[in-house]
User: Fold this.
Amino acid sequence: MAERILLVEDEEKLARMVEMELKYEGYRVDKALDGRSGLDLALGGGFDLVLLDIMLPQLSGMEVLRRLRRESQVPVIMLTARDSVVDKVAGLDSGADDYITKPFAIEELLARIRAALRNKNGQTGQSIPLAAGPLVMDVEKHQVTVRGQSVELTKKEFDLLRHLLENKGRVLTRETLLDAVWGFDFVGETNSVDVYIRFLRSKLDDAFDLKLIHTVRGVGYVIKED
Ligand code: CA
Assistant:
């Protein structure tokens, strides 16, 4: 059964683009262009996830979230304008599960959606292990093994590997990885990603004679099985 996503976004062009991408990924999508109808739809229930813009006509995204949370624990990802740190903090405080900053790469949004849906399913006792070939990651135990052998990773290495595994088979740009792993407020060089990829390669590919982490020249990185 396809998972149902409610998209509340008043920028029609963006809403259409996101709707198209989500449908392409196999999700069922309902759309609302203002806060009031978004809240009504969300309260109607039946959604697995809500994507909620903050700046909305009629009822702000924050207000929609506050009212929705009185009745529903459906996962909510807020869509925020760049640099509005206050919004992000307030959103998370009011019960948003995650946020993503506009403009965003669609692959990043899809990864956040998968993570939020996985968390939701995890609450009902299901846990999907992340894996690529003989490499297995247990997120809850914060453990990585290759052929059953435990691998010691730092937090950044673990987070980077997790993000690659969550997007197995997809090429991720350095910027996407930087934003996902180092956070929205990171100021620095995108070659931090290259440095940490090198660490991961030496601990995984080199140590176990594998070829899991691939460089796509001029684009970024992808993890995939041989
Ligand atoms: Ca808006």
Remarks:
- The chain is about 45% helix and 20% strand.
- The pocket of calcium ion is lined by residues 10-11, 53, 55-56 (CB under 6 Å).
- The chain has a mean pLDDT of 87.
